[in-house]
Design goal:
Elements: H1 14-32, H2 48-88, H3 93-105, H4 111-122, H5 127-144, H6 160-174
Helix pairs in contact: 1-2, 2-3, 2-5, 2-6, 3-4, 4-5, 5-6
Amino acid sequence: MHKRVTFSGSNQLIEQIALHHRDVEEALRRYFSITSDQIPGRFVGYSHQELKLELQKRLDELELTSSLALLTSFEATLRIDYLRRCYEKRKDPISREMRSVYKQKGARAGLEDGILVAWRRSMPGSKRLVDDLVAAYKFRHWLAHGRYWTPRLGTRRFDFHQAYTLVHIAGEQFGLPA
């Protein structure tokens, strides 16, 4: 028998992450839209173009960190759903698939090769969505492990908006909370 996971309740919803992202983006834009009499010491001597480049660097980093937060939050949602379906022994097709995975892997089931495969098997027409999620989680792995290698994402790049849209659609399709 597998040991049960205790849920912390500390996981964020994707809407909370989206609000935080917007607030920080707006704050960065305001901070960098300074006039000559408001220049913080750190920007003394910067040209207008240098300030624009510095802002863009900060916005690019915000895209990555917000995407990481979003994808980890949705992973938590998927894992909680997986465990609840198994603990409650629900009888619907996806829950049966999840319990099959649980029998082999317990709470340590892989996201891409366990939980998402169960979704793909039990939901006709979900192959493309699951494939998109797997690609997004490869991107997330790259972010989470320090970006030290060149990721093999093909032509796919995930900015915050793309990641948000993907997890929002997946949440709706899978009947999960946002």
